[in-house]
Amino acid sequence: MSPTAEWWRSAVIYQVYIRSFADGNGDGVGDIAGIRSRLPYLKELGVDAIWITPWYKSPQADHGYDVADYRLIDPRFGTVAEAEQLIEEAHRYGIRVIPDIVPNHTSDQHAWFQEALAAGPGSPERERYIFRPGRGSDGTEPPNDWVSAFGGPAWTRLPDGEWYLHLFAPQQPDLNWEHPDVHAEFESVLRFWFSRGVDGFRIDVAHGLVKHPELPDLPPRPEPTDQRPRQHTDHPHWDRDEVHDIFRTWRKVADEFPGDRCFVAEAWADTSERLAAYVRKDGLHTAFNFNFLMSGWDAKDLRAVIDDSLAMLGAVGAPATWVLSNHDVMRHVSRYGRQTVRGWMVNERYEPQGPPDLALGTRRARAAALLMLALPGGAYLYQGEELGLPEVEDLPESVLQDPVWERSGHTDRGRDGCRVPIPWSGQAAPYGFSPENAAATPWLPQPTDWAARSVGAQTGDRTSMLELYRTALRLRREHPALGEGTLTWLDAPAGVLAFSRDPGFICLVNLSAQPYPLPEDTSILLTSGPVENGLLAPDHAAWLAV
To answer: How much is the pTM?
Structure first.
């Protein structure tokens, strides 16, 4: 990467799910103090930035994605002063800080919503949200057929007879982005945190802010047997064209501040062309590439996603980003350990067929990490993936806290399995997550067999997942071919991905069932597992110098 290029074009950004990263005060919940204590670890790991899930004041109905005050830190996590200290300390370690921002909805405890409830139907206070009368002669039916992403209807009726929209939980009322107060408030919030040194924002539900003004019913869904390529549909509340006007203004706000401030969009779109619209030169800087995460363990599928992503994003001058896991999907060690590899998403979950083969999943995860970190552009790591953590699929029902569990009528266990606090050291829970002799246990129970997966246990073990990530990230920083740029596909048999990057780098990933011989006149930089007799085993990857 050119030394003058913007840092975010090739950054490796580490997602901190704040509740589960490190507990500094012993209450069983991660916090800012915990993050500050682990900055040396993140520096040694070799990441460029951290993305922190919402730390704002919140009733925690959706673990922070229900914000009551965007200018205050929730007392569970710390204070604004502690956040400022974290930003300053992270910068001293060369680590940038990107908090989440949640613009689609607020908490039902936000001052605006409380004012709207008190003011009643037809009031100006209600115009900041989406209130409507119900359908039917007595107004007892929802205004339309929209459904919540967490299950059930997307409308809740109030005692005064009006309904309000919530595309997620009832405690998360959707804002009305046609109201000028909403625009002004979020521009003010951005400036509040930019002035305190944050380097950017991850935008939650970036594709959902604008709704069709008439709030029509949902379009019919394609039949499951329809195999035609995905086409963009004029959806009444997802990925509407008007959302880009909002983000063009946000880009201007970011550009008021020095230091290459940036945005990353959590944006779901029907096609790569639609996703690329979010990252045009006057819009947001980057967007998550969920198609890569959702790909099966198949060379043809992965190559198609890589080619499509690079072409569509390159056409608008934006870098690609690559991600394998996050706080909303099953951890990829467990996904890759199953015959059918899919990304388990809210409301689109696929029942796993039996327990995962974790040995297989780990081999594939190691290979996938080398593939992801060799591709042009940036990458996102989800805390614990560098430890090879699997999904915790046997959490007792009594401890489940994801709103999906309740909203689904206890039919969908939700996302808690990928959010279990990560292990740092020791032979038993809390594995260093909380201070020694902490008064509280971790907010979700950790498996009894995680001692061998802790940071302490893996540090110095050259065969461990942690040391693989550390080495890969070091080589990525040092090798001039890696980061932003292009790739050239090389001839390879079916089931093998092979590409070169200039100068002098080759990545091989063997997704076939047969060993693949390493090319002559190359030397090994890094492999995901042992190489015997010059053969790259199935489900293994290699970085080679030419």
So the answer is: 0.95
